[in-house]
TrEMBL record, chain A:
It holds the Pfam family BPD_transp_2. GO terms for molecular function: transmembrane transporter activity. The keyword Transmembrane helix applies. The lineage of its organism: Bacteria, Pseudomonadati, Pseudomonadota, Alphaproteobacteria, Rhodobacterales. Keywords: Cell membrane, Membrane, Transmembrane, Transmembrane helix. It is a multi-pass membrane protein. This is ABC transporter permease. GO terms for cellular component: plasma membrane. The keyword Membrane applies. The chain crosses the membrane at residues 6-30, 37-56, 62-82, 89-108, 149-166, 245-264, 276-293.
Automatic annotation (TrEMBL), chain B:
One of its GO terms (cellular component) is plasma membrane. Residues 5-240, 257-499 form the ABC transporter domain. It holds the Pfam family ABC_tran. It is a peripheral membrane protein. GO terms for molecular function: ATP binding; ATP hydrolysis activity. It comes from the Bacteria. This is ABC transporter ATP-binding protein.
């Protein structure tokens, strides 16, 4: 069995990008104590509007920008919902997920007159960057060459998010807000404003995730094409306890599991079984994480 | 005379309730000024206005002679005020220095300047002898150290006027002494301290002047050394309250509680080490000791909340292997140390709280269903008998003041007329007026022939209430003495583990 060829490794890394970006969005929101489970819906919105932008401007960059801006706008529901209107983030996020799937299906019919799937030669896809020096080197080239700029950006963003959170005054305030918003308020920190901008910035990351999914991978839009990636990102955020580096590591684990399941299928196992592999791994990871957490909480007693 | 902080005719109303009426407060620069009053006298409202959390309806606030109008705490901080709240406002998972610089971080090119932050916080701590490891996480700190972090937070923002809201309520005696040393150092540095409290001896010990509030008005204003505890209490309560507990001699009867060789915990230093206690009917046995010397563990082991080895007999019956409910059934009433966390549930109504533990009684339930009319009826009776100030038996207990909540717990525990009453810190955080009532109630229980085991960190309470005193130190009973012969100085030495000097 030849699992580790250039194509699968390359696709695994590229396929991980939307989950990683969404997880970073979840990490940011988690740090300011907004439990964001609307990642799934936000990815879908990002994917759809990236197609819209790409189709009408004829440029991939136009598509990415359109996806990002639309998702930021969509995120204002959560941003203002949990601050100014004191809503419950879980309820808001469930609503947003439902709205995203309904809205994208509706607009697909209204704008393109299509149902289910939309593909068109006018959609400009994001070009992959080939690095000739390493392109054919096993592993190095498979991983680091022929990826979209969004993928490279996602790796950079892991570092940027970590630096912002742990090395800047803004990050300190975000962490403070997450732990004790009342205490942060007494120190003159505008909790509402910080939360709003964090949620909107997280929206931008989800927009990028969606753009990678639609115009960065296949150049089509399909209803419900986020297909659980946002939920896997939520799990990654929880397992990583809002730490961006750990979140990236968890995303990598999930990506490897996903590839593994595809390969198993190629070996002749029924796809109903192999499709379950990533979810089984998620479940196992959650249980391990919960046990670890319990031990940590009980340790000081 | 130029006052550092002055209020002129400050008034604050909440709907029909007037919390502060025409309050004139005058505080000199560089003094420790006590603001005293019972719960609900308007201390918190006044402090909230000084700190910008509330705005006065009428009147003026002046700092160093200049009128100020604060719209937020940030405004107040900008004018040199700092406040240490009773409930700390800290970030558990962050380090000490991160907690302190939060919101006013030293930065270099957009990044946090850790080295500068740590150096300035550590320097500040050293200057006022506030011993704190600034790189530790707050999660790992004791209450006393957390309070220092709060004080440092205010000092880091260069607070000239520091408001301390009931700062000693959560401290052990040693921590309290440490805090007082810090307060003196701050005063000597020219800072002004507002010390909000209802503990008299602390006012006498640390403050320079006193303002007393009652029902939202200033009833007394004087220099501490010209006042007396009696005068302050009269100003606080509007009547003269006896500081001494009125009680006749005890007439001990048969043995009710006998603890023999009780050990809790393991290793060379168990929390409770081989303790033996006898409590007879009609006497109050007080356990004195600095908090954390095994008193809580001892009481919890007797009540059945914590495993221990040794014999515990109640009226001759071995209860050591019984569960909590069975021990209560056997005749044990328990007023726990923390009434909010273990004594009551904030979301429960008064009727439910008074029912807890009695839900199986034949009069209150039938066939597994609660007899609600009977429960309400009983709750109304207990509320009336115990003078609990609550709108109705259907109101939730979470809204009650400390004293009122304690009355609920006491009403429930004493209603079951158990031969043994265990009272753990029965008056902690309770008003002077209510303390008197609770003490009278405990003495009445004794006179009714019940055995009372009292634990208190307040030396005056142990001395005033007990017939016999046991001093606990590092898990052992260090000494036993009749209350009539004990003195505060002698007890203090014993509580510090110094038997030789106390003899």
């Amino acid at each position: 069995m030849n699992m580790l060829n250039a194509y699968t490794v390359n696709a695994t890394i590229g396929g991980m990008t939307p989950i990683l970006l969404a997880a970073l969005a979840g990490v940011l929101c988690g740090r300011v104590a907004v439990f964001n489970i609307a990642l799934e819906g936000k990815i879908l919105i990002g994917a759809f509007f990236a197609i819209v932008g790409s189709y009408f401007t004829g440029s991939a960059l136009g598509g990415v920008l359109c996806g990002v801006l639309a998702t930021m706008l969509f995120s204002t529901i959560l941003a203002y919902g949990v601050t100014r209107f004191r809503g419950d983030s879980i309820v808001l996020c469930i609503g947003m997920n439902l709205l995203a799937s309904g809205l994208t299906a509706y607009l697909l019919r209204q704008i393109f007159g299509q149902a289910g799937v939309f593909s068109d030669p006018a959609i400009a896809e994001v070009d992959r960057i080939v690095i000739p020096a390493i392109n054919t080197i096993p592993w190095l080239g498979w991983i680091f060459s022929r990826q979209t700029p969004i993928t490279y950006l996602s790796w950079l963003l892991v570092i940027v998010v970590a630096i912002v959170l742990f090395r800047t005054p803004l990050g300190l305030r975000m962490r403070g807000i997450g732990q004790n918003p009342e205490a942060a308020t007494t120190l003159g920190i505008d909790v509402g404003r910080t939360r709003r901008w964090t949620v909107i910035a997280a929206g931008a990351l989800c927009g990028l995730a969606g753009a990678q999914l639609s115009i960065g991978t296949v150049g089509i839009f399909a209803e419900g094409m986020s297909a659980g990636r946002g939920w896997i990102a939520v799990v990654a955020v929880m397992l990583a306890r809002d730490n961006p580096i750990w979140a990236a590591a968890v995303c990598l684990l999930f990506a490897i599991a996903d590839t593994f399941s595809v390969q198993l299928q190629a070996q002749g196992l029924p796809n109903q079984l192999t499709d379950a592999v990533p979810y089984v791994i998620t479940l196992v990871a959650l249980v391990i994480g919960a046990l670890r957490g319990r031990r940590r909480r009980m340790a000081p007693v | 005379m130029q006052w550092e902080l002055e209020t002129i005719g400050v008034t604050k109303r909440f709907g029909p309730v007037t919390a502060n009426e025409g309050v004139d407060l005058r505080v000199k620069k560089g003094e420790v000024h006590a603001v005293m009053g019972e719960n609900g006298a308007g201390k918190s409202t006044l402090m909230s206005m000084l700190y910008g959390l509330l705005q006065p309806d009428d009147g003026e606030i002046l700092i160093a002679g200049r009128q100020v109008h604060f719209t937020s705490a940030l405004d107040a901080i900008g004018h040199g005020l700092g406040m240490v709240h009773q409930a700390f406002q800290l970030f558990e998972e962050l380090t000490v220095w991160e907690n302190i610089v939060m919101g006013a971080e030293p930065a270099r090119r957009g990044f946090l300047d850790r080295r500068r932050a740590i150096a300035s916080v550590a320097g500040l701590a050293e200057r006022y002898d506030l011993k704190v490891d600034v790189t530790q996480r707050v999660r790992d700190l004791s209450v006393g150290i957390r309070q220092r972090v709060e004080i440092l937070k205010a000092l880091y923002r260069d607070a000239q006027i520091l408001i301390l809201d009931e700062p000693t309520a959560v401290l052990t005696p040693q921590e309290r002494d440490g805090l007082f040393a810090v307060i003196r150092a701050l005063r000597d540095d020219g800072r002004t301290i507002l010390f909000v409290t209802h503990k008299l001896h602390e006012v006498m010990e640390i403050t320079d002047s006193v303002t007393v509030l009652r029902q939202g008005r200033v009833t007394e204003r004087m220099a501490t050394k010209e006042s007396t505890p009696e005068a302050i209490i009269t100003a606080m309560t509007g009547r003269s309250v006896s500081l001494d507990v009125a009680k006749g001699p005890a007439t001990p009867g048969e043995i009710v509680l006998q603890v023999a060789g009780l050990t809790v915990g393991q290793g060379p230093k168990p929390a409770v080490a081989d303790v033996s206690i006898t409590v007879r009917a009609g006497e109050i046995v007080g356990i004195a000791g600095v908090a954390g010397n095994g008193q809580s563990e001892l009481i919890e082991a007797i009540a059945g909340l914590r495993p221990g080895s040794g014999r515990v007999t109640l009226k001759g019956r071995d209860i050591a292997s019984l569960r909590v409910a069975e021990r209560r059934e056997a005749g044990l009433a328990y007023i726990p140390e923390d009434r909010a966390a273990t004594g009551t549930a904030a979301g429960a109504t008064a009727a439910e709280t008074l029912l807890m533990g009695r839900q199986g009684d034949a009069a209150l339930s039938r066939g597994g269903l609660l007899n609600l009319p009977a429960i309400s009826e009983r709750a109304r009776r207990l509320i009336a008998q115990n003078d609990i100030r609550i709108s109705s038996e259907r109101a939730k207990v979470g809204t009650l003041s400390g004293g009122n909540l304690q009355k609920v717990v006491i009403a429930r525990e004493l209603d079951h007329e158990a031969p043994l009453l265990i009272a753990e810190q029965p008056t902690r955080g309770v008003d002077v007026g209510a303390i008197e009532a609770i003490h009278a109630r405990i003495v009445a229980e004794r006179d009714a022939g019940r055995a009372v085991l009292l634990v208190s960190a307040e030396m005056s309470e142990v001395l005033g209430l007990s017939d016999r005193i046991l001093v606990m130190y590092e898990g052992r009973i260090l000494a036993e003495l009749p209350a009539s012969e004990a003195t505060e100085a002698q007890l203090g030495l014993l509580m510090a583990g110094r038997t030789g000097e106390a003899a």
